[in-house]
C-alpha cells in the first residue's frame, strides 16, 4: 500500500504550493495511495517569521490570516476524510514550525485538537532565519550563526534537538534539510565537521530513544540532490541504532505526488531497508479514533503505486 506522510496544497499553503486540497486527495487516489497524510504548515505568530511572498499587500494581514486558515484546513480535511473514506485512508496532521522554543506550546496545543492524528517535527530555520527558502537567505542564516556551513549546521542540529526533546514527534521531517542550500549539498555530514557529526549522532539517538521515525523524503531529489533526506551516512547510522523509516513525497500540489518514489524506494533498499512504517486510524466503540503503527513491505508498497 503506497502512502505519503507529508503533503501540502495551494489552497492552504498559497504562494508556496498549488491546487486545492481535494484535488491533491483525488490525485493521490488515482496514483494508488492507500494512505495520505495531510500536513499543511502550522500558523506562525511573529511578523519576522513571514516569508517574502507573504509580506504583500500587508504583513499584518498575512499574519492575521494564518490561524483562520489553519482552522479552515482542519474543517476541509475532516470533510475529505469522510467523503473519500471508501477510497483512501486520510490522516490529518500538520507540519510543525520550530523556529524558537516558544513555538513548542503552540505546537502541542494544535496537536491536541481531536481531529489531529499526528504532526511532523520540522526545522526550517537556524537562529530564526530560514535555511531553505533561497540561497541568499541561507547565507544570512550562515552569517548570523558564525559565517561557515559548519557553524550553521551545528546551530541547526542544536535547535533540532530542542524540538525533539520538547515535542517527541512521531515523524521527524527532512532530518538534514540544512544541506540543501549549503556550499556542497552532497557532502556527508561527517565531512562538514566533527561537531556536526557528533550532533547528528546525538539527535538520531534521541529519535530512536523515544520511538520516532525519520521520513525518507524524496523532495530532495526533485530539488536536485543526489539522495533523499536523510543522506546515506545519516541513514546508515540511524539504521545501526535500530531506527525506522516512514516515506514522504513532501508534495506541494498534484504534480509532485509520488515524485521520485521509485528512486526513493531503490535508495532505501540499497541501505538494506525492508519495510516502511505508517499510521492507521482505528475507530473504537465510543467513536474515538486511536492510532496503530503499521509496517508496509516494499512489495506491498509497489503493488498499489501507479506512478513511478
UniProtKB/TrEMBL annotation:
<comment type="similarity">
    <text>Belongs to the PHP hydrolase family. HisK subfamily.</text>
</comment>
<dbReference type="GO" id="GO:0005737">
    <property type="term" value="C:cytoplasm"/>
</dbReference>
<keyword id="KW-0368">Histidine biosynthesis</keyword>
<dbReference type="InterPro" id="IPR004013">
    <property type="entry name" value="PHP_dom"/>
</dbReference>
<protein>
    <recommendedName>
        <fullName>Histidinol-phosphatase</fullName>
        <ecNumber>3.1.3.15</ecNumber>
    </recommendedName>
</protein>
<keyword id="KW-0378">Hydrolase</keyword>
<feature type="domain" description="PHP">
    <location>
        <begin position="5"/>
        <end position="219"/>
    </location>
</feature>
<dbReference type="InterPro" id="IPR016195">
    <property type="entry name" value="Pol/histidinol_Pase-like"/>
</dbReference>
<dbReference type="Pfam" id="PF02811">
    <property type="entry name" value="PHP"/>
</dbReference>
<dbReference type="GO" id="GO:0000105">
    <property type="term" value="P:L-histidine biosynthetic process"/>
</dbReference>
<comment type="pathway">
    <text>Amino-acid biosynthesis; L-histidine biosynthesis; L-histidine from 5-phospho-alpha-D-ribose 1-diphosphate: step 8/9.</text>
</comment>
<dbReference type="GO" id="GO:0004401">
    <property type="term" value="F:histidinol-phosphatase activity"/>
</dbReference>
<keyword id="KW-0028">Amino-acid biosynthesis</keyword>
<dbReference type="InterPro" id="IPR010140">
    <property type="entry name" value="Histidinol_P_phosphatase_HisJ"/>
</dbReference>
